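Backbones bend. Shown next:

***
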Amino acid sequence: MFRCASCGAFNRVPENHPGGAPTCGKCKAALDLSGAPQAVDAAAFERTVAGSPVPVVVDFWAPWCGPCRMAAPILEQIGKEQAGKVVVLKVNTDEHPQPSAKMGVRGIPTFIVFKDGVERARQSGVSSAAAMSQWVSRSV
């Protein structure tokens, strides 16, 4: 399952997708199959968590936060390793404070895994790539 960065729709794309770039079934935009984290606003966060058919890993971060910047490549690696199996979102807490306030995020970076619209796991702070990958795998 892949989330369209343009309209937010979820799209099934088979692993052995025939030639050509896949497009969103709703808006026809090109789909990114890399699994790279997607920046979202408050509304897109709510819609994605509530309607995702696959687990959602959310990174609550801010551009001025050093540990957040250190976590970014780790999260990107996890997204690529789990492409199609999880959706990775990034919520900039400076630009979109509502989701972090609603979720009770007290420090950044904070990572939350949602499954079926419900919080399943939470971790604050940066850990190694291996530890973070294991945490996501256990949580989804």
